[in-house]
C-alpha cells in the first residue's frame, strides 16, 4: 500500500478504485478496531483530496461524474468520512422531506447519489428515518427509488427492520433479491445470519 499515492496520481477511475477490493477485504476481515480506524484515516487522507479537487473544478464529463460517485462511496462507507456522511445524511433528509412535508424533493440530491445518501442516512440519522423509508415503499413504483430504499433499509442500524420488511407484503418481485443482497453484504451479513 506504500505505492498507492503513485497509483492515485493519474486520477483515472479504474486505477483509483483498483486497490479497493483488496483494501476493503483486509479492513473487514483482518484488522482489529484500531487497525480499521487507522486504515479508514489513511483512506480519507489519500482519496479525500482527489474528491475535493473534482468538486472544486466541477465534474464536466460522464467519466468525472462516475469517478466522483465512486470516490464518495469509498469515502462514505470504507473511509467512514464523518463530514461527508453528515452532508449525505442532510441531503437524504432534504430529499425525502423527512421531518418536514414528507414529499420527495428530487432537486435536493444528485440522482447519482440517492442510493449512497439514503444508505448513509439510514445508518446515521434518527432511527425513525429508516422506518420512514419503509413506509414509502407501499406508494413507490419508481424501481430506482425502490432499490435505493431497500438497500438503505438493508444496511440500516436496526437489523430487525430489514428482517421484518423481508416478510412484509410491501415487498414484491425483485425487491426480495435487492433487500437480501443488502442485508447479506459484507458488513451486514453476520448480524443477519441468525435470522435465517
Describe this structure in words.
This protein has 196 residues and is mostly helical. Helix content is 67%, strand content 0%. The protein has 12 helices and no strands. It has helices at residues 4-8, 13-17, 20-29, 33-57, 62-78, 82-96, 114-124, 127-137, 143-154, 159-165, 175-183, 189-192. The longest helix has 25 residues, at 33-57.
**Strand portion, in percent?**
under 5%
Name the shape in a single word: globular
Q: Pairing-aware structural class of the strands and helices?
A: mainly alpha
State mean pLDDT (0 to 100 scale). Answer: 90
Residue share in helix: 55-70%
**What is the helix/strand order?**
HHHHHHHHHHHH
The largest sheet, given as strand count, sense and whether it forms a barrel, is: none
Low-confidence stretches: none
Radius of gyration: 17 Å
**Number of strand segments:** 0
Work out the helix count: 12
How far apart the termini lie comes to 38 Å
Features:
196 residues, mainly alpha
What is the topological layout?
Layout: H1 4-8, H2 13-17, H3 20-29, H4 33-57, H5 62-78, H6 82-96, H7 114-124, H8 127-137, H9 143-154, H10 159-165, H11 175-183, H12 189-192
Helix pairs in contact: 4-5, 6-7, 7-9, 8-9, 9-11
